[in-house]
Amino acid sequence: MNINITDTLNRFFQAGLAKLPEVITLFIGFIILSLIIKFILYRFENYIIKRTSLRSAAPKEYEKRVNTMVRIINKIIFISLWLIAALLILSAVGVNIGPLLTAAGVFGLAISFGAQSLVKDIINGIFIIVENQIRVGDVAVINETGGLVEAINLRTTILRDLTGTVHVFPNGSVNSLSNLTKVWSGYVFDIGVAYREDTDRVTEVIKEVAEGLETDPDFKEKIIDAIEIFGVDKFADSAVIIKGRIKTKPLEQWGVGREFQKRIKKAFDEKGIEIPFPHTSLYFGSKSAPIEILLKNEETADKDGSKEA
User: Fold this and answer.
1) Is residue 196 domain-shared with residue 164, that is, in the same domain?
2) What is the spatial order of strands in the sheet that 228-235 belongs to?
3) Domain that residue 155 falls in
4) Each residue of 223-255: pLDDT tens digit?
5) 186-215 burial string, b = 16+ CB within 10 Å, else e?
6) Residue 79 domain flag
């Protein structure tokens, strides 16, 4: 048995040495072909991005989608190309690839029955990509976990949250998906003021702050529409809540929102508008006796008087 294995290996290596120029040629040929395909995809990607930037009001959105699609296509072509290259090289050195293909078919059939979750992941991944649900570079919430989309693969989607933690989700396990940065984003604010304040006056001050932000060179390109003030939203325990929204370009809502809140605080301080904090009133019932409060100065005076006496 050992002699047969040794003879087989010897014949294999001898055949490989005899076919070495052909193997090297095939290997170099597939490397050149993969580089050509990569270059074609790169040019195609740039061409599509330029066309959409001229015709679309939101070119960055299409750019992210094109980038995601090209990455997936590149991976599929790369894997398929090198599988074919491996089979051709084995065939060139004298290996009968017919049984290998048959075994691969049987193995694939077994995988289809035993790895249903894998098949589900791939199918869901295809739908996520084709339906343009999220793209690389979006900020999304998947299964109540938010973060920046770093990669979308056929089997998994990868998010990185604000702390830098990387979350990997099998596409088949995605039960809920929210895209926070598709086409446009919105900064929604709830501003609380004291009950004694005139809400019409407060609304005018908020509009003035928003108009100043819209004309600021550092922020006017990030805001895509005038501020929307929905009005008095609710009566909270210590404040009247005024609700509104600022529409921004994708990923810009947080920076615009922070600057807006900073300016609101300064404007309210200048106008004397009170931003309330929680107050608590203590009630002891109708039969409770008044609470006697002794001021510190009076207490000191009483002690000094008693000492003199």
Assistant:
1) no
2) 185-193, 240-248, 228-235
3) 131-179
4) 999 999 999 999 988 899 999 999 999 999 999
5) bbebebbbeeebeeeebbebbeebbeebbe
6) yes
